[in-house]
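Bench notes, afternoon.
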Amino acid sequence: MSLSQKLRLLVVDDEPTILEFLKTGLGYEGYEVMCCADGLEALRLAHEHKPDLIILDVMLPRLDGFAVCKRLRAASDVPIIMLTARDEVPERVTGLELGADDYLTKPFAFIELLARMRAVLRRRGLSAESQALRFADISLNRETREVRRGERAVNLTPREFELLELFMSHPRQVFGREVILNRVWGHDYDGDTNVVEVHIGHLREKLSDRPPRLLQTVHGVGYVLRED
């Protein structure tokens, strides 16, 4: 698939904040995004526009996500990732037995959803996205979750890895603190916002990123990965 061919996504959720959050974030990642808020509309859009992947909430008006999943699967093999507000095993099993490819519990970090999407699309042969990222002498492998600085292996926590992946996926792009919180911690995060600064500090320390830094502070704005 060429870079000019955008994958088309259908996001189905009855929470306006989640729809807007995913439409903006996924659009920024280069996807073409359609949204709707109920099950019957989801079936119509899926039939008319043939999306490459569907993100489907369980609790929907008019027709719930399980019924939508069952009907979609009877008609096509479109990849489906289901969302639910309840972390209950029977509910997850039901979705998977109906044909969903994966399951994600709310609240979720945006970057985790991206990882699940990549995995599903890769299994279906729909992703042209490289699993290896490189910037300067830093390399990151999304599949093995290995990070290296030159020849040295760098051991990161899951959150530090996700933070570095965000910057390496968008080099020279300045990210504000709120955007970072939304992308890495999730749009529902309501803890201490200083967590971003703390994790940036840990990441710099583990990468031995000393002045002149690659992971730079843009005062009054946020952070950026770039070489001066």
